[in-house]
Specification:
About 40% of the residues lie in helices and about 25% in strands. Strand 2 and strand 3 form a beta hairpin. By secondary structure, it is of the alpha/beta class.
């Protein structure tokens, strides 16, 4: 299939008419920015002279940020702790224009926080504060109720599973029952078992995740096709998009052979969050009417923007539009 740049531009413009629901593990990403000019006399470690600190939404929150940045509409349902980080997450959602009412507060667990020390645009160290345990029964019920309410306005669902416990198998199974009953297509970015998400429309693992989830070691194209086949069977026929970093993506649709979609060669400053950008763009594009190939090219362009930035970043429609000609050329489908 050839790619029509004019149609891709129209699809990108159509993102503003799409409303998605994001469900998953919300993370608070904290950054301490500084410079290193010396080594500590106390131990052989760099001394970071702090010049700024920032806090942004990560995990399911970053998928939400990316949908908003790309022009879409979004609801977000997740579990946070009864702590300053949870309140900060709610405030950040509110500032995005996203109703924080989809956040369920579980006093028995902390909000997941990742604190990164960055010097000269390089990550020096990261501190994680989290629990991987499932939420309480009351919180699980409240989360499913929030999901059910939020579905009324949603054309599709993005599941951002980071293995932090919010999407325990019992939650996933019940959530899928709700999604099936409403006839809403589900796109998943999995970090744990696939079986609870049986019936999803699309799964987007990276290469390492595809190997882990399928049990197939990928050394050549035939291995990747075999891994995708396992994932498709696990999910009862879902389309599979395997992201491969600088090599782009490989698409497996309707049982057909894999289609490689090359990406734009870019100076990469930080790959963090690129997967969130990719799944946000894939879901928006498909719900705007794109084919899987068209969605992949738009997602490659969006991810290409994000890897050129430092930190948990997003891409705007203007930035994606500027990179689209290169994305089309890289995919080899201009026409």
């Amino acid at each position: 299939m050839s790619l029509d740049p004019t149609r891709l531009d129209q699809l990108l413009d159509g993102f503003r008419h799409v409303h998605l629901l994001v469900v998953g593990d919300l993370v608070l990403d904290e950054y301490v920015w500084g410079d290193v000019a010396r080594v500590s006399p106390e131990a052989p470690v760099p001394v970071v002279e702090v010049r700024d600190e920032t806090v942004v939404l990560g995990g399911a929150g970053n998928v939400t940020r990316n949908i908003v940045a790309l022009g879409g509409q979004v609801s977000c349902c997740a579990v946070v702790g009864d702590d300053p980080a949870g309140r900060s997450a709610a405030d950040l959602l509110d500032r995005l224009g996203v109703d924080p009412g989809g956040l369920v507060v579980d006093a028995g667990r902390p909000t997941t926080r990742k604190t990164r020390i960055v010097a000269q645009n390089q990550q020096v160290v990261r501190f994680d504060r989290e629990t991987l345990e499932a939420p309480s029964e009351a919180s699980r019920r409240a989360l499913l109720d929030a999901v059910d309410r939020a579905l009324g306005a949603s054309a599709g669902v993005v599941v951002a599973d980071y293995g932090k416990g919010a999407l325990a198998p019992v939650v996933a199974v019940e959530a899928m029952e709700i999604f099936r009953a409403r006839g809403v297509p589900v796109v998943i970015d999995p970090k744990s078992a696939l079986e609870p998400w049986r019936g999803a429309a699309l799964v987007k693992p990276n290469l390492r995740e595809a190997e882990w989830l399928s049990g197939v070691r990928v050394e050549e194209a035939a291995d990747l096709a075999r891994a995708a086949g396992v994932l498709r069977r696990e999910l009862s026929g879902a389309d599979v998009v395997v992201t491969r970093g600088g090599d782009g993506m490989t698409l497996f649709e309707d049982g057909a052979a894999g289609v490689d979609v090359r990406t734009v060669a870019r100076d990469v400053f930080d790959v963090q969050g690129a997967g969130d950008t990719t799944i946000a763009a894939l879901a928006l594009a498909q719900r705007a009417g794109a084919s899987l190939l068209e969605a992949a090219v738009l997602a490659n362009a969006a991810a290409g923007v994000v890897v050129g930035k430092v930190g948990t970043a997003t891409a705007s429609p203007g930035e994606v539009r500027a990179l689209l000609p290169e994305a089309v050329a890289a995919a080899g489908g201009a026409g």
